[in-house]
Design brief:
The chain is an alpha+beta fold and about 325 residues long. The protein has three domains: about 90 residues, no CATH class; about 120 residues, Trefoil (Acidic Fibroblast Growth Factor, subunit A) (Trefoil), CATH 2.80.10.50; about 70 residues, Hepatocyte Growth Factor, CATH 3.50.4. About 20% of the residues lie in helices and about 25% in strands. It has seven helices and 18 strands. It has a five-stranded antiparallel beta sheet with strand order 14-18-16-17-15, with helices on both faces. It is globular, with a radius of gyration of 20 Å. It starts with a helix and ends with a strand. Keywords: Signal. It comes from Aphanomyces stellatus. InterPro entries: Ricin_B-like_lectins, Ricin_B_lectin. This is Aste57867_3005 protein.
């Protein structure tokens, strides 16, 4: 069975008949629209192919980028991108990356179909196999994820709040900037949050501070702290998959071993594992960044890069 990442890429490429190259002025217009929209979506590292990462996210209804884009969160930065299909001359093939063609006229209208949900159920995962959960007195703490304890939150892309599956209340903060829950109120600014899946951070909209939780603490109370890219502020909203690579994850680390190939990842860093094992000859490791799998001939050295997750792959 093909890995989800491989299936997704195959579907994406198959949708691009190419080459019906865009006229130079249209090519420039598409490129400019991509540039502002990728920046708004948080894909700002040029080495991680922002255009490819944005399209991968917009084709996935389990992506926060997809939900925020369809809810208008990135407007006006993405207005020019969304308006591209209004020009029939964009019915052409734009080369996103290595012959992966994008037809703005045909594809953009499909991103926000009428049946796209306005909420997304996620686990707020920290390191060491833990996630944010809610205690009986409505305090948010880190706790191990087990078969019987797997807390989730429903994120509403219009209200920008997290509703806990534990007690039905919404995530907020108390006077000590500790995370707690409170009855949901769409008019309460203290319950508004923004998520960057590119950087694996959750930010409190009203204060601009980041969720911070120490996964090594037995009962780590989650708080807000100035955003500083520390390991305690790694909050993943990708639902972890059952993956033999998970045990070797290196967070905020890019393996500098020789690249073999890359492809769009349909999901989090776990989604690259089976493709590396089965479908990429010579693949022994990979780095996942901004929704793209980078397959490696060997791991090499781990170089610090915020938001990148790397893993070595066990032999089958």
């Amino acid at each position: 069975m093909l890995a989800l990442s491989t299936l997704f890429l195959a579907t994406y490429v198959a949708a691009q008949p190419g080459p019906n190259p865009c006229a130079p002025q249209i090519d420039n217009a598409i490129s400019a629209a991509f540039r502002t929209c990728t920046t708004a979506a948080g894909f700002t590292n040029p080495w991680s192919y922002p255009q490819l990462a944005l399209l991968g996210a917009l084709h996935s209804t389990t992506s926060f980028v997809h939900g925020d884009y369809c809810a208008g969160t990135f407007d006006p930065a993405c207005d020019a991108f969304a308006a591209l299909p209004l020009n029939p001359l964009t019915n052409c093939d734009y080369n996103v990356y290595k012959g992966q063609w994008f037809n703005a006229f045909k594809e953009i209208p499909t991103f926000c179909a009428a049946d796209v949900p306005s909420t997304l159920t996620v686990r707020l995962s920290v390191r060491s196999g833990k996630a944010l959960g809610v205690t009986g007195d409505a305090v948010v703490v880190t706790a191990p994820v087990t078969a019987d304890m797997h807390p989730t939150f429903d994120f509403d892309f219009h209200n920008h709040d997290f509703q806990s599956s534990d007690n039905g209340q919404c995530l907020t903060i108390n006077d000590d900037k500790q995370l707690v829950t409170t009855p949901c109120d769409p008019n309460d600014d203290k319950t508004k949050w923004s998520v960057s899946q590119a950087n694996n951070t959750v930010t409190h909209t009203a204060t601009g501070l980041c969720v911070d939780a120490d996964p090594t603490d037995d009962v780590g109370i989650a708080t807000l702290q100035p955003c500083n890219s520390s390991p305690n502020q790694y909050i993943s909203t990708y639902e972890p998959l059952d993956s033999p690579c998970s045990a070797s994850f290196a967070y905020d680390a890019d393996f500098d071993g020789e690249d073999l190939s890359d492809e769009i990842a349909y999901g989090g860093p776990e989604s690259c594992c089976s493709s590396c094992q089965t479908y990429v000859p010579g693949c022994k490791a990979y780095s996942w960044a901004d929704g793209v799998c980078y397959y490696k001939k060997e791991a090499g050295n781990a170089v610090f890069k915020r938001g990148v997750v790397s893993a070595t792959v066990p032999s089958l």
